[in-house]
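Readers outside the structure-tokenisation community will struggle with the description of the input data as it stands. I therefore recommend that a typical entry be quoted early in the introduction. An entry of this sort, consisting of the sequence and the corresponding backbone structure tokens, reads as follows:
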Amino acid sequence: MASRLPPLNPLRAFEAAARRGSISAAARELSVTHGAISHQIKSLEETLKTALFERGGKRLKLTPQGALLLPAVTQAFDGIAAATALMNRPSTSGNLRISCVPALLSLWLVPRLGSFVDRYPEISLTLTSSNEPNLIYSPDIDVAVLYGSGGWKDCWTRLWSTFELFPVVSPTLLNSRPLRSIRDLREHVLLHGDDGREWYSWLAAADQLDMPKAREHFMGDARLSTEAARHGQGVALGDSITASSLIAAGELIMPFDLAVPAPDAFYVAARNDVRAAPIAKVFIDWMFETIEAERAAQPRPASRSRSLPSPRRRNTNSTTSPVDEGE
């Protein structure tokens, strides 16, 4: 005869408290009182006849028995959430809500959406231009494509692509004001898509940190700096993904053969219950299939890549959490 399972509510209280490391945080997540969580955990410990948490510390710490139980409970709840998502959204039809890094959205995703729409004509899309990690947890967003370090908590995250940075300039500007050497950059306007760290890293790799700069414009977004370069307003740092089509079309030129790795990367992220839904899964699969196909088909730009020295840190809003990758 199969042994009886512990009651569901105490298991849910235990899982939330263990994951959050706090009874108060678990109570807020489950919309119950601190005392209710404590009571549920005590009830579960009595049922199992073993202590699940060590008492006395500021932060909850699992006993060996609690550490043994937690992965099984977490997997069970994730499975229930995934099955519920499949029941609620059983087909690849309906509205899919996507947030995406502004530069990647306008310069890479939008130009390629036709292939996705042709393949899944019953899916309508709502696109949001943002690199805000908190949108992963918003009920108004299904899939987030982010630039950062990954490692966002309580969600599914997978590395989509790393990339390299290199100067780009319009042919018109290059014809009127040549760039015969890196030192000629001092006669050009430098266009920043961030707070200046990326240009600092590239100039450091080029051994030109002492080069005097003429003028600089800070756009706060790589989409804007790339567009400004396309219109001949200066030299921007393009990247091997969002600038690739503009370079192939001849709208931008790489004046030098030096590229440096970007400090972060692009990730695809979604809440665990949403990730398993067919309507989200087909889009995620399409994102990875498309970048892999392009990477296999296109030759690597003729540039030499150099490792970055450690730049001086400046104020930034970029995410710096560790990578959390998986499927």
